[in-house]
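Budget justification note: compute hours in this period were largely spent on complex prediction jobs such as the one shown. Inputs:
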Amino acid sequence: MSLDTLLNIISPFNLLMMNLGIAAGIIIGALPGLSVVIAITILLPVTFGLDSVPGMFLLLGAYCGGTFGGSITAVLINTPGTPAAAATTLDGYTMAQNGRAGDALKCALTASTVGGILSCFALIFIAPPLASMALKFGPVEYFALCLFGLSIVIGISGDDIFKGLVMAALGLFASTVGIDSTEGIPRFIFGNSNLLAGFSPAVVMLGVFAISEILDKSRIGVSNGKVETEYAKASISLREIFSHWKTMLWSSLYGIFIGAVPGTGGAISAFFSYNEAKRRSKHPEKFGTGIPEGIIAPEAGNNAVTGATLIPLLTMGIPGDTAVAVLLGALTMQGIVPGPELFTSNKFWVYSIMGGLLLINIFMFLQGTLFNKAFANVAKLPFSILVPCIAIFCTIGSFSVANNFFNVFVMLGFGFLGYILKRFGFPLPPLTIALVLGQLTENNLRRALILSEGSISIFFTRPLSLVFLVIALISLCLPLIRKLKGRKA
Amino acid sequence: MELKKQRTNFIVALIVLVIAVVTWGYIVPSQIRLNALWGGTSGVTSRTFPRFACGLAALAAIGEMIQSGLRYRQLKKEHAQMERVPVQWRNELRALIIFALCVIYAVLFSMIGYIAATLIVPPIMLLVLGNRKWQHYVSVYAVGAAIYVVFVYLLQIRLP
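Corresponding output:
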């Protein structure tokens, strides 16, 4: 990392963006029902007017802050602010009930920071060699890799694999609207010139994640506001927390490994880390009674995902989870194409992002230590206030993508579609990930088929492509087999 | 409940199948013209990928129909009863009103501008959601003002 990169990272404006992102992420993450994805999606429009580096710092801050923020409500009201914090409720809430809410939050914050920093080091050391390996990929391998990424997202996004497939197909189809980048032919524009540029992923995400969420919450009538356990000042020392360094280290490693696999995420990592910590513990019976290890394990595990999910994104352009798919949408808007070439053509940008992520985790610790009590009060905010605020943000955000009103109505259309599809049990992540991966998938499919003169056997004769396709098939079939077995039992 | 869910899944999958078939057979050819100079012997055109997506959707819909059909038959054999779950019309209506207000906000935003639209619609949303505290109305206006400052003065985006 050169001195220029370092000076760029620590410029006052970049530091401000990191801190704003972290604060916004913690606040949104702490609101029950609003996930990290919504935190990043809501901040997405703000990045349109910024350079790519501060814009990414804002979103990465929200990503890390939101992942930690979910643990605040998990501890105080036994309701995880984000799915990734669900495992934290097991010991966090019990500890808070024992009058140690501050201790629980301090454990969560410290473990989240350590997990995040280790994950960042994994990104720094693993991404460059992986990128140089990915440089050797041809269109055949890339197409198979895209299908692999999609299949994993479909496989874990619900118990009904067919619904996930329908959503992925819808996302791939939506990505074809507009001018075909290969032949220059307009597709599905229905005489409307606004559609020539296609659907902006940012606009679709604002609708699918934010608008559908406020409609869903308005229907259910969620009311926050009742904090069951009051915040109590932390008395646990850092030395005491770090006495569980083995749990912290192992959980971070699990998080890094799980996060680097496309399609996984913080929730899986948190539960896996919690179970492993319990299994390795000398006193597993104490888990669930409010012990620090029961908070440290899931929190280190879920925040260790944040840097690791960037590995497939930066090296191959494949989003590791839904939150990273939104980051990919932001990068696309900034004209940055993630992939192995980024490591040769735009090294400065890549290392700025890596260094920035490291700083973000340190700032998250500082903000959490100084303002934990204030963040804890966010859980008292009624959801009804958020509905108009999110509606305003989404409207102005979708307008600012291209300064036209058409995008506002596209956002509302996708919002309503997302709401209806969610009601019928269709998972939303495959739609957005397929939308951002659509063009990459199509371009590589077409190039590969032109190479093979239309024969699909090319995908099965290349070893790496075959491996990706076999894993994709297994990840799609496993849930079905498990379901059938479950029924027979 | 489970019986009704399987029936709904079957119907929704059937609708997806019909849409996929119509898109494959009618919408794709009518909306994408073929470039005779492109593709050569590979047969790959601008229509290939949209049809790949349609085919994937159709196959998934067939899979869903088979799965829900089999489950429905199994449940029938087990003499499961079709439970009538009363629809909470009030809740459904609340979500629809909020959506309608979002659309109205977007229309007003384009016609009378951001400030006027923000003064009118968000308080109605709070009212529909049953919030009567005046402090919350002030908070929403404060957020609206903050968003305006961020977008117009910091990000230099011209709003109507």
